[in-house]
Design a protein that fits this description.
about 300 residues; alpha+beta; five-stranded mixed barrel; three-stranded antiparallel sheet; 12 strands; about 20% strand; globular
């Protein structure tokens, strides 16, 4: 069942980015003892497909009946970001058309499946996409390839889902009058905006907690060496995700003393002006933990070489 639903969804243009999420293990005192990637079993995927189907059905049913609701929407990528993404993947012989359709990205992901550049393309594709948010309008969900979509399946933890349950309950067996529709649409606009802002705050808090736990976990590992993958490049250095533990640290450009490095933003790389040494997103490197700052929740690394 799960594979059939997934296949049908991807054929319709749904983008299935299987990127790892952190799972922090704590001891009895609340001290982090391990940080690993969260397991995503077939049972999890099956439930996800059922939830997607239920969310889509409820949104479609309300749309057909002309009843306003809070939609979970996702707009197509910004043309400038898409152009930058195309410029990068061109080095792998890849390209997505512009204007892009939702079916173009699943086709791209299928091409790179199992290839060395799969992880980096997945990561950059995620950064190219706009953020999903709540809206009283109904332009569809680009990333899922659904013309109508809403959050319905988690009313105990998400307010938009609870509102949708109330709407379904109220209008399940009766029509929604034009006057009711006008008033409901106006209220949903305010609720959608507030729900989106609360979601942004919650995600920021979650990131802060994860960053703190990662820093705490690495406190006793200063001086140790690890292998990792460059996940992001900026003008002040590059971020490395360690392979042995699911932790990300920063290699400051000021710590690389062998050359003067320039940041080439469209190519997500740093290039040395004399030796032409290059650090690019997706490269494997060997690093040493130089320092851990709990206050800033930052792990400083020193690059020892490329792998």
């Amino acid at each position: 069942i799960r594979t059939t639903l997934t296949r049908q969804r991807i054929e319709r243009g749904s983008i299935d980015l299987d990127l790892p999420e952190p799972e922090v293990g704590l001891d009895d005192r609340g001290v982090p003892t391990r940080i690993t990637t969260r397991l995503r079993l077939n049972s999890h995927r099956l439930i996800e497909e059922f939830m997607l189907a239920a969310n889509q059905f409820v949104a479609l049913n309300l749309h057909e009946r002309g009843i306003p609701c809070i939609h979970r929407i996702h707009e197509s990528p910004n043309p400038e970001r898409l152009a930058n993404f195309n410029e990068f993947i061109a080095s792998f012989g890849l390209k997505v058309p512009s204007p892009v359709r939702s079916t173009d990205f699943p086709a791209l992901l299928k091409k790179i499946q199992g290839r060395p550049e799969e992880r980096v393309v997945n990561t950059l594709l995620l950064r190219t996409m706009k953020k999903a948010h709540y809206s009283e309008a109904d332009p569809g969900h680009f990333c899922l390839g659904f013309p109508h979509y809403a959050h319905f399946t988690s009313p105990i933890r998400r307010y938009p889902d609870l509102i949708l349950h109330r709407i379904v309950k109220k209008y399940l067996k009766r029509k929604c009058s034009p006057k009711e529709k006008k008033g409901l649409f106006s209220r949903l606009a305010e609720i959608s905006e507030q729900s989106t802002q609360m979601e942004i705050q919650a995600m920021a808090i979650e990131r802060e907690v994860i960053d703190l736990r990662r820093a705490q976990f690495m406190m006793d590992k200063i001086g140790k060496t690890f292998h990792g993958i460059i996940t992001g490049v900026t003008g002040f250095g590059f971020f490395v995700e360690l392979e042995e533990v699911f932790v990300e640290g920063l290699v400051k450009i000021s710590s690389i003393m062998d050359d003067y490095y320039l940041f080439i933003e469209p190519e997500h790389r740093l290039i040395g002006q004399k030796r032409h040494r290059c650090f690019q997103i997706g490269d494997r490197v060997k690093v040493r933990v130089a320092d851990v700052d709990l206050g800033r929740k930052q792990i400083d690394l020193v690059v020892l070489g490329q792998v």
